[in-house]
Each structure stands twice: as structure tokens, then as C-alpha cells.
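Per reviewer request, we include the raw input and output of the structure prediction for the construct analysed in the revised manuscript.
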Amino acid sequence: MPSFAESLLTALDRAENEAVVFHALVSAARTLGFEHVAYGLRLAVPVSNPKVITLNNYPEAWQARYHEAGYLAIDPSVRHGQLSQEPLVWGDDVFSSAKELWSEARDQGLRVGWAQSSLDGFGIGGMLTLSRSGEVLTETELRHKEIEMRWLVQAAHLSLSRLMKPKFTLQPEVPLTPREIEVLKWSADGKTAGEIGDILSISVPTVNFHIKNVIHKMKAANKTAAVVQALMSGLLN
């Protein structure tokens, strides 16, 4: 019989969209004894207000209430995920600053939960939450299942970011040339046009010409914005 990881990997490898991936995650979570799964993906851009994409199979009434009340902004579990990649087990102490949220969540059957966040090299963050309506998560259960739960976090992030990032990350309609990418990489490292010219053995006007072209192709406001956008889109890796 295939192992937990092998079965999930097979399903994720065949997935062509995020709905298929999420279905596989729900099935895996149920194998581990959890009813509900939530996954939030936070893109790195726009930097001032990163886009957050969420998938979950929570009760519809709770999804509507969570959105209506703006609970995302005050959810202590989300805040923990933004600050740490250590696993978090739900409890009264965790939600002491959001007692109304905690009370309403439990009324909707979300009484026991575990969450862990992840972060990749592109600055894209994700958090997987597993929850259920009963049976307290004991130390013994956690000890037996935590390796698989942590593995599920990484599998979810790799698969969902792969499928969802291209849909929300701007890519230039006209591809950047190898020289433009080279100039942009040195710009990302803080080099001036003069320094880049010396490194690449080209003139300063030529460096500025390439930068101007990049800004135009990326539809960016300036060089800094173009560098950030290209970096977060994976164009410089």
C-alpha cells in the first residue's frame, strides 16, 4: 500500500488546477483525522498591500461571517503565521485577544485546530490550517502525526503557489532580454549605472537604455518598482 506521502504526491503531481490540489489536501487531512482544511496564500506584491488568496471547506455561514466581520485582520492564528513558521495549536490562550472570533468559530464546529505557515524564496507566504469539531488534539496524537502534518504544509505550499502564482503575478507581455535581466540583477544588488557599465563593459547610456526598456516592459513606475516586480515574479532567478 502506498505511504501517506506517496499517495499525496501522486495526486498533486497530476493536479492541473488549485481545486484538484485542494481536494487532495482535504482527503489527506481526513486521513489524519481532520474535517476542515484552510489554506491562505499571500503574494509578495504589491508590497504595500500584498494580495491574499484563500481556499477552505469551512461551513458557508462561517466563511460569510468571517469575511463580514473582517476577522482576517485580527485573527491571532494568522498573525502568528506571519511572524513564525512554528506550528500553532488552537486554544483559549491563542485567541485571548479575539474572544468573539473564537466563540463564533466554536459555534460553527471549529473547536480544535492546528496551523503552520511557510515561506519560499520568492517571498510568497502560505499557511495551512487543519481543524475539526471534536476530540482534543492530544500530545500523543500530535507526536504521532506531526511529521505528516508538517509535510502536508510544505506540499500544499509548493503545489498551490506553483498553480496560483502565475495567475496573480504580473509578467511582461514582451519577454526581457538576457542583457536586460543582467542589468536588472545588478540594479537589484544596489549597483549604480556607472558600476553596472564597468561590470558589463558597456556605457552608462546603454545601461540606462536597458533599464528604460525594462520599466516599459514591466509597466512599472520606476526602476525600483521594476526590480521588485521582476524579483517577485521569479524573472531574476
